[in-house]
Amino acid sequence: GLVNTREMFAKAIKGGYAVPAFNFNNMEQLQAIIKAAAEDRSPVILQVSKGARNYANPILLRYMAQGAVEYAKSLGWENPQICLHLDHGDSYEICKDCIDHGFSSVMIDGSHLPYEENVALTKKVVEYAHQFDVTVEGELGVLAGVEDEVSSDHHTYTDPEEVIDFATRTGCDSLAISIGTSHGAYKFTPEQCTRNAEGKLVPPPLAFEVLDAVMEKLPGFPIVLHGSSSVPQEYVDMINHYGGKLPDAIGIPEEELRKAAKSAVCKINIDSDSRLAMTAAVRKVLSEKPAEFDPRKYLGPARDEMEKLYKHKIENVLGSKDKA
Ligand code: G3H
Ligand code: 13P
Ligand code: NA
Ligand code: ZN
Hints:
binds glyceraldehyde-3-phosphate; two-stranded antiparallel sheet; 12 helices; binds sodium ion; TIM Barrel; globular; Fruc_bis_ald_class-2; alpha/beta; single chain; binds zinc ion; binds 1,3-dihydroxyacetonephosphate; 8-stranded parallel β-barrel
């Protein structure tokens, strides 16, 4: 069945790689994630957000994820390492609902709350979750941009002075931190960037000194990076070429994620890149073949493109191939 993150993270820290955490909202995304993970024998975390629950229905998503384990086996993966994780849980109640209905891991995101309230809420979720061997991700620090319904104009880096107290008092199994990543396809404004010789935007570096300080305080503790899409230029260009409009979209350079994956960062969250791959492929088919109206004819190529993307992340960025 589904597994929690405990062993996945212990192995990832030892092995110097990160486990991919991919969001899914529909069947095509799920199929692409499972095919990529199965073919590459990579552990994988399937993430469901509150928005995904509202879009696709919590019951359907849960059965799809549970069915994905059987699907993975049918692809020849004998012992699939698949975790079903609630992304950005914003209340005790939503976490409990997921724990009661088969999730193997949850995130309680109290990062926008005053510190003591974040501690109390996270601790309450941990106490419930651990009775069922469900692992819990907490968060300290605030990412720039939009965290589901919680928005913040600027990020607040994680304060390394708080992490020991937070991890000890809450008992959380992993900690999401803020070091300059953010959600979505516009991670930096053009003003925050510089330009290279060809005039392309170059993002400012992540705050690796904050990550280093956190790791020094919590040696061997699993760290999570949200907002880690790279916003591949080829997809942005394809979308814009086929009638879309994504001016100055920009993500996290893969080189920085490669470096993070080698450290105690053992979960890297990617959602936007999958959305871009899907949109680029759908736009291309609909634009080149205007007579096509069978959804399989555009969602099929979109699924193939997402699988290619997931494999690229696993093989060339996170380093999780052949680790499951
Ligand atoms: O953290 C945000 C994830 O990308 C999920 O996004 O809330 O639009 O489903 P969503
Ligand atoms: P991206 O928007 O960078 O893909 O981040 C996804 C995420 O952090 C999900 O929790
Ligand atoms: Na790692
Ligand atoms: Zn996130």
